[in-house]
Write a structure and sequence with these properties.
Elements lengths: L15 E6 L2 E5 L6 E3 L5 H7 L9 H4 L1 H19 L6 E5 L5 H8 L3 E6 L2 H9 L5 E3 L12 E7 L8 H11 E12 L4 H13 L12 E2 L2 H10 L3 E8 L3 H5 L9 H16 L8 E7 L4
Parallel strand pairs: 4-5, 4-7, 5-6, 7-8
Antiparallel strand pairs: 1-2, 2-3, 3-9, 8-11, 10-11
Helix pairs in contact: 3-4, 7-10
C-alpha cells in the first residue's frame, strides 16, 4: 500500500482507500481523518483545469441562468457573513468572476479579491470592475493584518496545500478578525449514507475530483483553522442545492435506478442541516488578540 503524507497532520502511514472516481483515488488519513485525493493533478494540469479553455466557469459569461444562480449564491453568502460581522475590510480568496465582491461592495464592504484562474479574474476586473489579484494566495500579496474578514466560499477544498494557504491568509487578518470557510461536509448525513453504498452501486456523488482535492468535515476543518492559528467560533450547517447534487425533479425520474437513489438520499440532504449534519458547512473562526 502506498504511503502518503497528510497535509493536515503530517501522518505518513498508509491512508485508508475510500473510493475511486474519474480516475482519482480518495483516501482517508488514519491520523486525523482528512479525506484527500491521493493522486492529484500536476500544477500545469491544475492551471489548465481552471481555464475557460477547459470550460471552467465559462458559463458565468455565456449563460444568464447560471449567472443568475451564482448571483443568488453570492447574496446567500453575504447574508451569512453579515450575521457574524459588520462591513469592513474584506478579502475574498478564490473570488471567481467577482459576483460576491460586487454584492459585498454594494453592502458597504471595502472588498478585494484574489483568484487563481486567469480567465475568471480578468472577468472580475473587466466586466464587474472589482479589485482582484490573479494567482494563488502567497506571502507578500497583501499587507499583514490589513483585513477584518477573509472569506473562502467553496475554495479551500480546491487548493493543493490548504495548511499553507490558510496560514498565509491568517496573517492577513487584523487581531479579532474573522475567517469564513465554506466547504462541502464529507461527514454530512447524505455524504456518509451514500458512501456506505457507493461500493455496491459504483457511484458516490459527493466528491468532485480533480477540482476538489480535499473533503473536509467539521473536525478536520476546525483542525485546519486551529493549525493556522485561528480560534474556531461556530459552524453553520447548510445544504448544497438539490439541483446541483441530484438535478431537477424531472431528472430524478430519468431511470429507475436514479429514481431509487434520489428517493433514498434527497430526504437526507434536506434533513441534514436540521440535525446538525448538513452536506455543506461554513466555519467562522477568529484570529485571537483583539
Amino acid at each position: 500500500m502506498t504511503s502518503h503524507t497528510c497535509n493536515l497532520c503530517g501522518t505518513a502511514s498508509p491512508a485508508q482507500p475510500l473510493f475511486s472516481k474519474s480516475g482519482f483515488d480518495l483516501l482517508r488519513c488514519p491520523g486525523c481523518e482528512l479525506v484527500y485525493v491521493g493522486n492529484p493533478p500536476s500544477g500545469d494540469e491544475l492551471q489548465k483545469l481552471y481555464s475557460f479553455e477547459s470550460g471552467y466557469q465559462k458559463e458565468l459569461v455565456e449563460d444568464p441562468i447560471s449567472t443568475a444562480f451564482h448571483h443568488d449564491e453570492a447574496a446567500r453568502n453575504l447574508a451569512l457573513l453579515q450575521q457574524h460581522a459588520r462591513p469592513g475590510r474584506l478579502l475574498d480568496v478564490g473570488c471567481s468572476t467577482g459576483l460576491f465582491l460586487s454584492a459585498a461592495r454594494q453592502a458597504g464592504w471595502q472588498a478585494r479579491g484574489v483568484e487563481y484562474s486567469v480567465d475568471s479574474s480578468r472577468v472580475a476586473r473587466e466586466v464587474y470592475g472589482q479589485d482582484v489579484v490573479t494567482g494563488a494566495l502567497e506571502p507578500g500579496m497583501f499587507e499583514p493584518g490589513s483585513f477584518d474578514v477573509i472569506t473562502f466560499w467553496d475554495v479551500i477544498e480546491h487548493v493543493p496545500n490548504p495548511v499553507h494557504t490558510l496560514s498565509v491568509a491568517a496573517q492577513l487578518l487584523a487581531p479579532g478578525g474573522l475567517m469564513v470557510l465554506k466547504t462541502p461536509n464529507v461527514d454530512g448525513l447524505y455524504p456518509k449514507a451514500s458512501l456506505a453504498v457507493a461500493g455496491l452501486v459504483g457511484f458516490w456523488g459527493h466528491p468532485e475530483p480533480p477540482g476538489h482535492l480535499f473533503q473536509f468535515s467539521v473536525k478536520t476543518l476546525s483542525a485546519l483553522a486551529s493549525r493556522a492559528g485561528l480560534s474556531p467560533r461556530t459552524t453553520v450547517h447548510q445544504r448544497i442545492p438539490l439541483g446541483y447534487s441530484f438535478g431537477t425533479p424531472r431528472q430524478w425520474l430519468r431511470s429507475a435506478k436514479w429514481a431509487v437513489y434520489c428517493a433514498a438520499f434527497v430526504p437526507m440532504a434536506v434533513v441534514g442541516p436540521w440535525v446538525g449534519s448538513g452536506d455543506d458547512i461554513a466555519l467562522i473562526a477568529e484570529r485571537p488578540g483583539a
